[in-house]
Each structure stands twice: as structure tokens, then as C-alpha cells.
Design brief:
By secondary structure, the protein is mainly α. The protein is built from 29 helices and no strands. The chain has helices at about 15-20, 20-35, 40-55, 55-70, 75-85, 90-105, 110-120, 125-140, 145-155, 160-170, 175-190, 195-205, 210-225, 225-240, 245-255, 260-275, 280-290, 295-310, 315-325, 330-340, 345-360, 365-375, 380-395, 395-410, 415-425, 430-445, 445-455, 455-460, 465-470. The longest helix is centred in the N-terminal third of the chain and has 14 residues, at about 55-70.
Length: about 475
């Protein structure tokens, strides 16, 4: 599920796209077939532009080719042909058309702008920049050229440069609505959220019924932690386009962050009803059910997520926790193992597996799993402590001591580990080491003295022990 919409689309154009232009194209072809072209040349040219605007590239290309048979030295027709070929992703052929147009009219900045699109798409980024710079050199007031340069840098994730050129575009044309939209996107990705919000607001002044604009505005507000306002923006996007799955999804995230779980659940389910193969919506629905304590429903939706994407590591791990909670330990172990097989460098599954193995009394397996987790995150206090405890229960005293030593390495004020070390040293009859550990534990947390007195009533009353312990 996408989170931010980087592509500008004008929702007002949807009505235009709904129009049936097939008849217009057919009428145009009849004009050409009947040789009546000179009587209706302007109308034919309008149809070509209509084809460009409505992505009827093949039809437009057919018409412009027939025009070029009549007027092979018309630079504007070669420009249109290149633009249509760009739309068909035939970029090499498009470049030939643009070169032909420039040979007929070298001073046309618009040709260089369109030419840059083809160059970018074949990976010739430097040439694309040169073409746009050539357009600016020819026409320093050409806002489209600056806009195109801004988009070129944006696609390279060079957002500072993108902002520079997009600002110039709106300076030259203060009503350049698309430039405000792209500025919002570049500012957002440059972590200038306040500026991003301003630019989306300005864009929406021009295009109040643009669903993508309201959606991206919501994304920015969510990042600013203005969740209620973000929801309002998502709602406006949905009102304009009810099947806007990403808006429903992000609205669900905002509700979840506000702790409004039932509303989050409804939003994620709406998102899933629109995009039935979206594993992220399934996962989030499951997550909400888990938070609500409806574990069986959570398992159902984690399973649905895995049907869509059998490599969904997080879903295996989360479902494993649910199985563990419901006492289905073998299914939990299976899910943890699946998670491990998908992401061996992620410690969470190893840790979860180890805890479950420990609970089941499989101490050898638990120790091995804890050690695997520690290879990934060697400074985890919790895992070292659990490993040390496991070794203690296995009567593997030296390894247990090493585990507690690592706990103390990570947290020097860890009274509990000093106390556990003392107990092991008593078992090993290392009285001096045991006393030193007790002194450290009591010094950090005097409460352990009471625990010691309960566990070792005979030792604590020993005169030798009292002498060794000193003031404690």
C-alpha cells in the first residue's frame, strides 16, 4: 500500500477522459480519407491534442503520420509525433522525431522540453538536463522548462535542487498549479513539512476537487502528528474518490495512532474491500484485532495476509505470537521458524522462538535460539539475561556466569545479575567471589538483602559470612 502520492493528476480531467472521443477520431480519419484536410486542418490538430491529453497515443500517431505525408516539413507535427511516441514509450523513435523538428525549427524551446523526457527515459540524464537548459537559454521565461528540470531532479531524489527550479517555475507563472503540487512533494521529502503543507494548500486553492492533493496533504499532516486534521484531509480525498484505497488505509493508520481502534478497523476493511490483494491491509486488520484481544480474528487476517504474500515475515511472526497466546505452541514454533527462514538476520523471530522453547522446557533449543539472536544484536540485555537464566536452569554454571557478566557489561547497575552470580558462586563454593557479588548487588539495590536472607537463612547468620560481608 502506497503512503505518499508523488504523481500529480488532475481529477477534473476525469470527466474529460469519460468523454467518448472515438467518434471524434473516426470523424478525423474520414476528413483525411476524403482529402478534405485543408478545410478542417485546425480541427484535425485539435483531435491530435485531444489524443495526447487522453492517452490515445496510437490513434494520435496514426493521424499525425498522415498529416506528415501532406506536410513533411511542419516542425509542429514532428513535435506532436515525438510527444505521442513518448506516450507509447518508444523513446528512441521519439528522439528522431524531435531532432527532425529541431532541424526545421531550431529555436523551439518546447521541443527541447519534450526531448528531455525521451532522454531521461533511456537513461541519458545529462542529455536531458542539457536539453532543458537549452530551452531555458532560448526562453528564460519558460516556466515549463524550469518545472521539468525540477521534476528531473525530484526523480533523482535531489529535492533541494528540485525545489529551486520549481520555485522559479511558480515565480514565472504564479498560477502553475501542478508546480505547487510537486513543490509540496519535494518539500515533504526534504523534511520541510510546514512548507510542504503550504504548497499543497496553494495547489488545492486551484484544484479543490483533486483527491491526490487532499491525500498528500493528509500524509504531511500525519507526519506533523496532526492526526485529526490528517483524517479530515483523507476524508475529503475519499469524498472526491470513494475508491481511493490508500486514503482509506492511511486514515486507518491515523485512527490507530489515536487509539480509535474500531474506526481504524473500519477504514482498513474498506481499503481491503477496494484492493482485495493488499496484504498490508490484512496485516493491519489483524493487528487491530490483536490489540482488541480478539485473537482468533487476528489469526484469520494474518493468515489472509500470508495467502496473498507467502514471504510476509512480519505476518508469520505476529501470527506466531497469537498462536503462542492461545496455547497452540507447535503452530507458533512453525510460524517462528518460517519467519526465521525468511529473515535470518532479524533477531525478533529467534528471540520469540527461544522464549517459547524455554516455556516448553526445551532448554537446549532455547539456549541455541537465544545465541542465534545475540549474533544479530549482541548488546541486548534482555536476551543475555534470558540466556543466563536458561543456563542456570540447565546447571551450566560457567555459561550462566558468562551470560550475567554480559548483562553487567551492558548495564553496570544491574543488581539482579550480581545477585544471580553470587548464587552460582555459592554453588561452585567460590565464597569470596559470591560475597563480592552480594556486596555489589546490595550496594545497588538494598532490597536484595531481604531476598538473600529468605533464600539463605543459614548462611546469613554465619559469623564468618558476616565478617566477610562487612558493613552489609
Amino acid at each position: 500500500m502506497s503512503y505518499l502520492d508523488s504523481g500529480y493528476t488532475n481529477d477534473d480531467d476525469f470527466d474529460e477522459k469519460e468523454k467518448d472521443i472515438d467518434q471524434e477520431i473516426e470523424n478525423c480519419r474520414k476528413i483525411l480519407d476524403e482529402g478534405d484536410i485543408y478545410q478542417a486542418i485546425e480541427r484535425v490538430e485539435e483531435i491530435i491534442q485531444l489524443c495526447i491529453e487522453n492517452e490515445r497515443y496510437s490513434s494520435g500517431l496514426d493521424i499525425v503520420n498522415r498529416l506528415l505525408e501532406i506536410s513533411p516539413y511542419n516542425s509542429e507535427y514532428w513535435l506532436k509525433k515525438g510527444t505521442l511516441l513518448n506516450g507509447l514509450c518508444e523513446f528512441e523513435e521519439a528522439l528522431l522525431a524531435f531532432e527532425k523538428s529541431l532541424s526545421l525549427n531550431p529555436g523551439d524551446a518546447d521541443v527541447y522540453i519534450e526531448k528531455s523526457i525521451a532522454e531521461e527515459n533511456i537513461g541519458e540524464i545529462s542529455r536531458a538536463k542539457e536539453s532543458l537548459q537549452a530551452a531555458i537559454d532560448m526562453d528564460s521565461q519558460n516556466s515549463d522548462a524550469y518545472f521539468s528540470l525540477g521534476i528531473l531532479f525530484q526523480r533523482q531524489n535531489k529535492f533541494k535542487e528540485s525545489i529551486k527550479y520549481l520555485l522559479t517555475a511558480i515565480k514565472l507563472d504564479p498560477e502553475f498549479d501542478e508546480a505547487y503540487y510537486e513543490l509540496g512533494y519535494s518539500y515533504e521529502n526534504n523534511n520541510q513539512l510546514t512548507e510542504a503543507l503550504k504548497k499543497y494548500d496553494k495547489f488545492l486553492d486551484f484544484q479543490p476537487y483533486n483527491a491526490n492533493g487532499w491525500y498528500n496533504r493528509g500524509v504531511v499532516l500525519a507526519k506533523m502528528n496532526k492526526l485529526e486534521k490528517a483524517i479530515e484531509s483523507y476524508d475529503l480525498a475519499i469524498a472526491i474518490r470513494p475508491t481511493f484505497a490508500s486514503a482509506w488505509f492511511n486514515k486507518g493508520n491515523a485512527f490507530a495512532d489515536l487509539g480509535r481502534l474500531q474506526q481504524a478497523l473500519e477504514s482498513f476493511k474498506e481499503s481491503l474491500s477496494i484492493e482485495s490483494n493488499d496484504e498490508a491491509s490484512c496485516y493491519n486488520i489483524a493487528n487491530i484485532y490483536e490489540e482488541l484481544g480478539e485473537i482468533n480474528s487476528a489469526i484469520k487476517y494474518y493468515t489472509e495476509a500470508l495467502k496473498i504474500n507467502e514471504h510476509y515475515y512480519e505476518a508469520y511472526l505476529a501470527r506466531g505470537y497469537c498462536y503462542d497466546t492461545t496455547g497452540k505452541y507447535q503452530l507458533a514454533l512453525k510460524d517462528f521458524n518460517n519467519a526465521i527462514s525468511l529473515s535470518k538476520d532479524n533477531a525478533d523471530a529467534w528471540y520469540a522462538k527461544a522464549d517459547l522453547e524455554y516455556s516448553l522446557g526445551k532448554l537446549q533449543e532455547a539456549a541455541a535460539s537465544y545465541k542465534a539472536a545475540l549474533k544479530i544484536i549482541p548488546d541486548s540485555y534482555e536476551i543475555w539475561h534470558n540466556l543466563a537464566q536458561t543456563y542456570f536452569e540447565m546447571a551450566d554454571w560457567l555459561d550462566a556466569l558468562e551470560g550475567y557478566d554480559n548483562c553487567i557489561r551492558i548495564n553496570q547497575q544491574d543488581a539482579s545479575s550480581y545477585y544471580e552470580k553470587a548464587k552460582i558462586n555459592f554453588i561452585l563454593k567460590r565464597t569470596r567471589e559470591a560475597v563480592d557479588c552480594l556486596k555489589s548487588a546490595f550496594g545497588i539495590d538494598p532490597g536484595f538483602k531481604n531476598e538473600f536472607e529468605k533464600e539463605y537463612p543459614d548462611i546469613k547468620s554465619s559469623k564468618l559470612f558476616k565478617k566477610l560481608l562487612g558493613e552489609f
